[in-house]
Amino acid sequence: MLPPHGGKLINREPRTTNTREKLKRKAKELKQVELSTGQVKHLQNIAHGSYSPLKGFMGQNDLKKVIKDRTLEDGTVWTVPIVLDVTQEKVDEIENEGEVTLVDDTGIQLAVMDVEEIYTIDKKEAVEGLFGTGDEEHPGVSNFLKLGEYFIGGPIKLIRGGFDDYYQYLLKPVETRVLFKEKGWEKVVGFQTRNVPHRGHEHLQKSALEVADGIFIHPKIGQKKAGDWKDEVILESYDILLDHYYLHDHAVMSIFPADMFYMGPREAVFDAIVRKNYGCTHFIVGRDHAGVGDYYGDFDAHNIFEQLANIDIEPLTFDYAYWCKKCGQMVTDKTCPHSMEDRIAPSGSKIRGMIKDGQRPPNEIMRQEVAEFVTNQKSPFVVEG
């Protein structure tokens, strides 16, 4: 099993009940900073080690290096910003504080944070570096530009996790590492998704299983743009697929609580690093991974791994997959001699269009047990991002 990113699995949770109680008492005396729902997920992921080697929200030097060089200040490959933004009013309140209490939108104490620095950056310049565009129609760009003017950097100490949705599906990196070892899995393939499974996804997963001991299906659960699948629909769809079409000894599903960045190739690297922390040795990178619109090329997410220093986890890159009517199975250009007239592409946008029109996708595109479930959902898609 690969070591975690940076060499050590970070744990920012109290080790004893007594330590937690002391932290709670301290938190009551400190000034508070309220987190967004996305930042609550970041906090939890930092504390659990999903974001190893991060110990807290990024400081200015780390963020600048991520934007410019796709590394942290110490040279460790890292591609996305994990930041805590605040307003000028909040800065005026906490600028002389050494510690603050992080709370959710109901005021529940989640963590104590050391305030190592308060800083600002040029956000318009930052989005060009992070997303490759300043176009505010890009949902990731729009979200970043809406952040507060200032950022707080420093390590955190968790009091309690704040994201409880679908908690029955949640496994921490320390738990998956034990689970994979107990199952005897030496080669583990991670699969990131924000969609219900179609035959193309199944083809990728089962092709990867031919060279691995197990697959770790890890849907990203959190805020998505309008038109994306709802989290509960994704999870139940995968439950159906796993129950009917997978060997349970070779497939595990958990959730990755995180909002989408829609950062294309940078997010592909980030997603691979996270799964490395969970114990995966390989990671599936499909076409237009974490992309949106036409902002990224279909295979930019494949190419970025060749541009960066080795991150140890091995990307498994796949080309287009189709259902070939003559072959009677899923194929690629490497395995099928027939023309495009004989092929059916399991397009995600096509499937969403069919569902919206009340049509059940055919078996060549989606397993019928899954198709029946999603077709019968009254509102399977996100209305607002």
Explain this structure.
The structure is a single chain. Helices cover 35% and strands 17% of the residues. It contains 13 helices and 16 strands. Strands 1, 2, 3, 4, 5, 6 and 7 form a 7-stranded mixed sheet that branches. Strands 8, 9, 10, 11, 12 and 13 form a 6-stranded parallel sheet that branches. The longest helix has 15 residues, at 231-245. It folds into 2 domains: 17-158, Sulfate adenylyltransferase; 168-375, HUPs (Rossmann fold, 3-Layer(aba) Sandwich). The protein starts with 16 loop residues before the first helix and ends in a 10-residue tail after the last helix. Helix 3 crosses helix 5, helix 5 (123-131) runs antiparallel to helix 6 (139-145) and helix 10 packs across helix 11. The protein is an alpha/beta fold.
CATH topology-level name of the largest domain: Rossmann fold
Structural class of the secondary elements? Answer: alpha/beta
Number of separate helices: 13
Number of domains: 2
Low-confidence stretches: none
- Please provide the ordered H/E string of secondary-structure elements: HEHEHEHEEEHHEHEHEHEEHEHEEEEHH
Taking the sheet with the most strands, its summary is: 7 strands, mixed
Looking at CATH, the homologous superfamily of the largest domain is HUPs
Cα radius of gyration in angstroms? 21 Å
The number of strands is 16
User: Helix coverage percent of residues?
Assistant: 25-40%
Q: How confident is the prediction overall: mean pLDDT?
A: 94
What's the CATH architecture of the largest domain? Answer: 3-Layer(aba) Sandwich
